[in-house]
Amino acid sequence: HFYINSQTELSQVNIDIYNLVGIKVKSLYNGSLNSGQTKISYDLSDLSVGVYFIRAQNGFVDEVKKIIVVD
User: Fold this and answer.
1) CA gap 42, 9 in Å, rounded
2) Which of 11, 13, 17, 45 lies at a CB distance of 3.0 to 4.6 Å from 6, suitable for a disulfide?
3) Are the beta carbons of 62 and 53 closer than 8 angstroms?
4) Rounded to whole angstroms, how far apart are CA atoms 49 and 7?
């Protein structure tokens, strides 16, 4: 799960997954969210085992978190 906070009444949010060399491998969410904290669930079963980065952007915040996909 990934939590994102939105400061405005309606905010455009993009959440993407990148590999170690910075290539986008999957888009998890692209759309609008209401203000407050929102929980985004995602399925990573189509990714190979390895290290990835989740990048969340909403106009005010650009946040990156490292994730590790295991069997």
Assistant:
1) 24
2) 11
3) no
4) 34
The residue type at 58: N
**Closest by alpha carbon to 4, among 51, 28, 38?**
38
Q: What's the average model confidence in pLDDT over 56-63?
A: 81
Whole-structure pTM value:
0.78
- The contacts of residue 37 (CB under 8 Å, 6+ apart) are 3, 4, 5, 6
Q: How far apart are CA 6 and CA 9, in angstroms?
A: 8
Buried b (16+ CB within 10 A) or exposed e, 51-67: ebbbbbbbeeeeeeeee
Contact of 19 with 25, CB cutoff 8 Å: yes
